[in-house]
Amino acid sequence: MSVSHILTTLSKLERLHRSLLDLSMKKTDIIKENNMAKLDETLKNEQAHVAAIERLEQQRLVEVTDYLRAQGCAPTEAPTVSQLIEVAKGEEQAQLRAVRERLTTIIAELKQRNDLNQKMIFQSLQFVNITLDLLQPRPEQMNYGNTANGRVAQPMKKSYFESQA
């Protein structure tokens, strides 16, 4: 087992993460447009990317484990690229560091973009809930008989939106 196979797998992971980042950026625009059909399509595409990333990650784990064993090291349960860098020598070590740095940068950008998208969706849901509350307020708690103060409960508030018009 050579580092070149691992570098190839890491490069594929980098491409998939970059593609996922591009999808995430498009999703931001789709959320702004409030286009639910495109959002659904984008989410399905993202799920396919995540599944492919998981498969490649499993392949990377096997390759790194095999390489570390071939070098006489006892790999951990989930060997990391950092462990691989410690064992690698010369040019391979420099290439691994460069790929790790690029992947780390892409993943950080992806996390930041996903946080933004999550906040935008949460705010959109809050707006929908506020609008629904304005159009059809929730009825106050119903009590049987008089209240503790001896007053009769007030009638329900009317909605601004008449649903039976």
TrEMBL record:
Q: Has the keyword Magnesium been applied to this entry?
A: no
Question: Which InterPro entries does the record match to this protein?
Answer: FlgN-like, FlgN-like_sf
Alphabetical UniProt keywords: Bacterial flagellum biogenesis
Q: Which Gene3D superfamilies match?
A: FlgN-like
Look up the domain of life of the source: Bacteria
Extract the SUPFAM superfamilies matched here. FlgN-like
Q: Which Pfam families match?
A: FlgN (PF05130)
The entry's protein name is Flagellar protein FlgN
What is the organism of origin for this protein? Caryophanon tenue
Please spell out the taxonomic lineage of the organism that makes this protein. Answer: Bacteria, Bacillati, Bacillota, Bacilli, Bacillales
